Amino acid sequence: MVETSVSSGQLVVLTGPSGVGKGTLVQRLLTLHPDWFLSISATTRSPREGEFDGQSYYFLSKDQFQTWITEEKLLEWAEYAGNYYGTPREPVETQIAQGKTVLLEIEVVGAKQIQQTFPAARRIFILPPSVEILETRLRGRGTDPDSAIAKRLAQAKEELAAAPEFDYQIVNNDLEQALGELSQIICE
Ligand code: ADP
Ligand code: 5GP
Hints:
This protein is an alpha/beta fold. 41% of the residues lie in helices and 21% in strands. A five-stranded parallel β-sheet has the order 2-7-1-8-9, sandwiched between helices. It has a four-stranded mixed β-sheet with strand order 4-3-6-5.
């Protein structure tokens, strides 16, 4: 286990409901800061078109995911909309020990667990301007069938209630403004 207190690296957790723009913001941050490290999660959901194992996610069977939990290979994990998602522990600890800024882009239940595992992490909640705009973004993304969108919206309403529990809240209305606020928090 890495001692965060003696490391110069930092862990940044971005959370918020599906469709709020976490992935978009993270990709922009990585373009601005190519030396930052984005953790690749494990999931039991099926790959979407254009997603490849080891790039977007490590795509695991439910049995494999269970083994990773049992072997304590995950820093956090959660069930979300009928599938499991989790952060592989080892790459995150290695990068932080090397002094890197490590980004996690994860859902709310897992992000709460990070408070216990890495109390020094900066945990940032991304809010949509409204639930209606969140739905428009989820539909506009065009990656999920209607049934999955309904599950994600139902979940979003619960997730939004947890926003005040996080260290920072950012509304992703204007993308450039949200990006500026995010950069300021991470680089301060
Ligand atoms: P998440 O990773 O949180 O699920 P995405 O990054 O995939 O969300 O964004 C969902 C959709 O919303 C995408 O089509 C993206 O282009 C769009 N989007 C993200 N941020 C904004 C913004 N500030 N204004 C308008 N559309 C946005
Ligand atoms: P998607 O299926 O759209 O790729 O992801 C669904 C949700 O799972 C998103 O909110 C995403 O941020 C979250 N997620 C992705 N990886 C992880 C992870 O490792 N742990 C947790 N707890 N959530 C994750």
